[in-house]
Amino acid sequence: xxxxxxxxxxxxxxxxxxxxxxxxxxxxxxxxxxxxxxxxxxxxxxxxxxxxxxxxxxxxxxxxxxxxxxxxxxxxxxxxxxxxxxxxxxxxxxxxxxxxxxxxxxxxxxxxxxxxxxxxxxxxxxxxxxxxxxxxxxxxxxxxxxxxxxxxxxxxxxxxxxxxxxxxxxxxxxxxxxxxxxxxxxxxxxxxxxxxxxxxxxxxxxxxxxxxxxxxxxxxxxxxxxxxxxxxxxxxxxxxxxxxxxxxxxxxxxxxxxxxxxxxxxxxxxxxxxxxxxxxxxxxxxxxxxxxxxxxxxxxxxxxxxxxxxxxxxxxxxxxxx
Length: 322
Ligand SMILES: NC(=O)c1ccc[n+]([C@@H]2O[C@H](COP(=O)([O-])OP(=O)(O)OC[C@H]3O[C@@H](n4cnc5c(N)ncnc54)[C@H](OP(=O)(O)O)[C@@H]3O)[C@@H](O)[C@H]2O)c1
Known about the structure:
By secondary structure, the protein is α/β, with parallel strands linked by helices. It has one domain (47-304). It is built from ten helices and 13 strands. The strands form three sheets. The protein has an eight-stranded parallel beta sheet with strand order 6-7-8-9-10-11-12-13. Strands 2-4-5 form a three-stranded antiparallel beta sheet, with no helix packed on it. It has a two-stranded antiparallel sheet with strand order 1-3. Helix 1 runs parallel beside helix 2, helix 3 (125-139) packs across helix 4 and helix 7 (247-256) packs across helix 8 (260-270). The protein binds NADP nicotinamide-adenine-dinucleotide phosphate. The site of NADP nicotinamide-adenine-dinucleotide phosphate (NAP) has 26 residues, from helix 9.
């Protein structure tokens, strides 16, 4: 049984609906909340309501670099642990085994949130249409919950052409929510200008995905997204283990009886992000979901506040200007 903590943060569109534990105390949270409504409680079943109207579970399970031959098994373990959201991509070459895990999980399709992404090589209207089709052929799914543009490459025409293909697939009911990844503010502004000019055909940005952690807080992008109700997914939320030895993480871990990785994931949740930790190791899959029985206080959050730090551990297409 998880202990539920109270949060005094701005979490837009927060919804609670837990597959693990339900309590009448949460009923009042099962609505579309305004950005300023506090406090909120959450656990592994908590969701955001997206601009599309669909809900996204707040904790995601990442599968980048998860080999296809183990992907079904580890994803099944994640589902058994309580995760209900998997972040895949065409480029990860494991959409098919992840979809097998969805089918073989015994869970209802609508209880699982599956994401894929347009590969950087498939930018532009027609190439993106083909990429989306390939995802359906490979996964055998009837619909995909979220499809993102993986990176802002391909020039303006390529980016807007890809967006147009996503909107059409959304209107056809094949994709429920759409968004972007690795977009800098200049890419977001470009897309917003197109959306504003396209009327009904522009749709809305539901989700943005970026590398975000205390050493890469991306305040400009976060502010842009919050203003528009765009849910913010945080990739590399545990910095691929590279910061495990940081004193601040060791100290906070000791203070709360948690690991450095759990401290980072909790930071991400309390900032209102959707962290996407990846692991192929069963104990780590479980550890990364065991983050609902403690809370970082204001001092802890301050100790993890490095507003001037800009230290990606992954690629960084946000700065590209093609
Ligand atoms: N949109 C994009 O461009 C983009 C880019 C990168 C990532 N992503 C998404 O974000 C997800 C997460 O990012 P990421 O995989 O790069 O980095 P990450 O989740 O920060 O770190 C994953 C690494 O940390 C290890 N690990 C996991 N849990 C641990 C724990 N509790 N203790 C110690 N080590 C632990 C994993 O090892 P084991 O697996 O061996 O356990 C793996 O080597 C990806 O899987 C992907 O879905 C998106």
